């Protein structure tokens, strides 16, 4: 009996010591000194944009015009394709409506 009580007290003591150590560790982590804010001075300097070479600017404008033309052509083709799709869907709906019977045929009953 004394041995059992001694073992139980040893286990409880170890458990309490581990819990106290964990709590102390967590408290030491949360009590870290907060950093002192430092003043940051930002000096604004004017930004100068270098002038674009006229040849490069003309090339950029030419490429932009070609891009816009390609984009307009692609949009036109897309609109035409969508229009053809709508027409095809309408024709298909009309064909399906024309070929569908108005009502199913009535069953024929044989005389007995």
TrEMBL record:
Alphabetically ordered keywords of this record: Coiled coil
Q: Report the coiled-coil segments.
A: 64-98
UniProt KW Coiled coil keyword: yes
Its recorded name reads Peptidase
């Amino acid at each position: 009996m004394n041995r059992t009580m001694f073992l139980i007290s040893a286990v409880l003591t170890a458990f309490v010591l581990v819990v106290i150590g964990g709590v102390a560790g967590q408290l030491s982590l949360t009590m870290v000194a907060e950093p002192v804010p430092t003043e940051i001075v930002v000096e604004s300097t004017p930004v100068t944009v270098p002038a674009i070479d006229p040849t490069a600017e003309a090339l950029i404008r030419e490429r932009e015009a070609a891009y816009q033309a390609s984009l307009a052509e692609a949009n036109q083709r897309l609109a035409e394709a969508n229009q053809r799709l709508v027409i095809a869907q309408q024709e298909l709906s009309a064909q399906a409506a024309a070929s569908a019977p108005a009502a199913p045929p009535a069953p024929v009953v044989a005389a007995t």
